[in-house]
């Protein structure tokens, strides 16, 4: 699936009617089966918000496509676990961003004089904008986080 402009959310015409409906102000991203197969989908929403939706270990995640640091294309980043937390690793400068919260993780050195050096994973706090993903009847929607 390629990037494309998407305005108001609506399921494709072929979807069946249901009592479930997408969240208000959400944007239709695609069929879940297509996203699962593609693993990563990018989409431009609201005329300029580039969003990355990805499927990893049975879970859907959505975040701004561009890295908070300097705009790296996160859709090309590897997904790895650091300190028990799943992160996307920006392909540009290797910043680690948690998939679920958008926290920036880094390795801190508490005592630079200690031998050998001991490091700990720490959080810079939430740095990357994460968006809410909702699945309704096999259709995937994203509600933008405007914070
Ligand atoms: S642009 Fe992502 S780490 Fe620098």
Automatic annotation (TrEMBL):
The protein's name: Rieske domain-containing protein
Species of provenance: Gasterosteus aculeatus aculeatus (three-spined stickleback)
PROSITE patterns: RIESKE
A matching Pfam family: Rieske_4
Chain residue ranges for the region called Disordered: 1-33
CDD domains for this protein: Rieske
Record flagged with keyword Nucleus: no
InterPro entries reported in the protein's UniProt record: Rieske_2Fe-2S, Rieske_2Fe-2S_sf, Sol_Rieske_ferrdox_dom
């Amino acid at each position: 699936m390629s990037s494309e402009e998407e305005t108001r959310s609506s399921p494709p015409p072929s979807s069946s009617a249901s009592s479930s409906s997408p969240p208000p102000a959400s944007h239709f991203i695609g069929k879940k089966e297509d996203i699962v197969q593609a693993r990563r989908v990018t989409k431009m929403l609201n005329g300029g918000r580039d969003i990355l939706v990805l499927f990893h270990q049975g879970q859907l995640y959505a975040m701004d496509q561009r890295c908070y640091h300097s705009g790296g294309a996160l859709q090309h980043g590897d997904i790895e676990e650091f300190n028990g937390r799943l992160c996307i690793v920006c392909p540009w400068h290797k910043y680690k961003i948690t998939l679920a919260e958008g926290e920036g993780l880094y390795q801190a050195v508490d005592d630079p004089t200690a031998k050998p050096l001991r490091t700990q994973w720490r959080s810079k706090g939430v740095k990357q904008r994460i968006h809410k993903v909702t699945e309704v009847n096999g259709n995937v929607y994203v509600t933008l986080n405007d914070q």
